[in-house]
């Protein structure tokens, strides 16, 4: 009887497997957070790239004399920028240039990017992710005073 009591108190003091149990409880939460950080990091990188592409394309369009030449300059800039690598692909981009205002003193460059090919969407199905289409625009004055 005394021996059983000693054995019981020794088992209650033994904490050999507690680390494994704690890890089994905490690991799924940590992995979920890690995958979420990676997924949103890739997505925010793509959003930033699209915004930067729109701003730089608007700057490139200023050199054109008419809307057709400005669209051509923007297309050349987009092709050169995307070919350098990164998260964007030329097939998933749609870039348009339009004149704003009554006398066309402003230009708007709109960049639509279909982000469905990014690895974000296959990373983890339980993550709440934003839309697969990224749309950014930049407006710039088309020269003159």
Structure in words:
By secondary structure, this protein is α+β, with helices and mostly antiparallel strands. It has one domain. 50% of the residues lie in helices and 18% in strands. The chain has a three-stranded antiparallel sheet with strand order 1-2-3, with helices on one face. Strand 1 and strand 2 form a beta hairpin. Helix 2 runs antiparallel to helix 3. The model has no long low-confidence stretch (mean pLDDT 86). It comes from Henriciella algicola. Keywords: Membrane, Transmembrane, Transmembrane helix.
Determine the fraction of residues in helical runs and give it as a percent range: 40-55%
Query: How big is the Rg?
Result: 28 Å
- Could you report the average pLDDT, rounded to the nearest whole number? 86
Strand arrangement across the biggest beta sheet: 1-2-3
Report the structural category.
alpha+beta
Number of helices: 3
Give the low-confidence spans. Answer: none
Biggest beta sheet summary: 3 strands, antiparallel
The domain tally reads 1
What would the principal axes of the Cα set say about the shape? rod-shaped
| Strand runs, count | 3
Q: Sketch the topology as an H/E string, one letter per element.
A: HHHEEE
Strand content: 15-25%
What is the CA–CA distance across the termini?
A: 100 Å
Can you describe this structure in just a few lines?
The chain has 145 residues and is α+β, with helices and mostly antiparallel strands. It contains three helices and three strands. This is Pilus assembly protein.
Question: Topology of this structure?
Answer:
Layout: H1 2-13, H2 18-61, H3 67-82, E1 93-100, E2 106-114, E3 133-141
Antiparallel strand pairs: 1-2, 2-3
Helix pairs in contact: 2-3
């Amino acid at each position: 009887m005394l021996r059983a009591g000693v054995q019981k108190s020794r088992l209650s003091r033994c904490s050999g497997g507690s680390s494994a149990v704690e890890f089994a409880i905490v690991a799924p939460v940590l992995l979920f957070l890690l995958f979420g950080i990676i997924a949103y990091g890739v997505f925010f990188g793509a959003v930033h790239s699209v915004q930067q592409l729109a701003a730089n394309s608007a700057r490139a369009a200023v050199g054109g004399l008419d809307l057709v030449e400005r669209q051509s300059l923007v297309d050349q800039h987009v092709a050169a920028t995307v070919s350098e690598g990164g998260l964007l692909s030329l097939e998933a981009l749609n870039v348009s240039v339009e004149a704003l205002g009554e006398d066309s003193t402003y230009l708007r460059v709109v960049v639509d990017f279909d982000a469905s090919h990014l690895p974000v969407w296959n990373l983890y199905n339980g993550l709440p992710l934003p839309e697969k289409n990224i749309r950014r625009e930049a407006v710039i004055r088309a020269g003159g005073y």
